[in-house]
Design brief:
globular; 6-stranded antiparallel sheet; 52% strand; 124 residues
Length: 124
Amino acid sequence: MPVIRSSDAVTHEMHGARFVSHAGPRAGSRELCAWRGEIPAGTAAPAHTVSREEIFHLLDGELLITLDGRTERVTAGDTVIINRGATVSVENPTDRTAVSWVTTSIGLRARLADGTVLTPPWAD
C-alpha cells in the first residue's frame, strides 16, 4: 500500500503560488495526481486552458475563479469542476492565504494566452 507521508510530498512554486504534490507518477500513481495549492493573499494566476478535467476543492479561504469568462466567488468547502478545454484563472483578493486540493489525471497541460504550454512537474 503506497502511503505518501506529508514529509515526502514534493513542493513546487509557480506564479506566486505553492503546489505540494501528494500523488502522481513519481509517487506510484498510474492514473491520477493530486496536490494542495497554497494561494497567498493578493495572488492572481494567469488564465490558462487545461488539457484534462480538474476537480478543484477549496479547503480554506476565499478565491475568485474565472471559468470560461464567468467569475464566481468560491469559499471554503466549495468545489469547482473544470472541464477539459476550459480556460480558468484564480485570484485571491483577500488578506490571507487560501488552500485548495486539486485532483486530475496524469498528463495535465496548461496553455497560457500567449501560447506557452506548461507541464506541471507534479502532474507528469
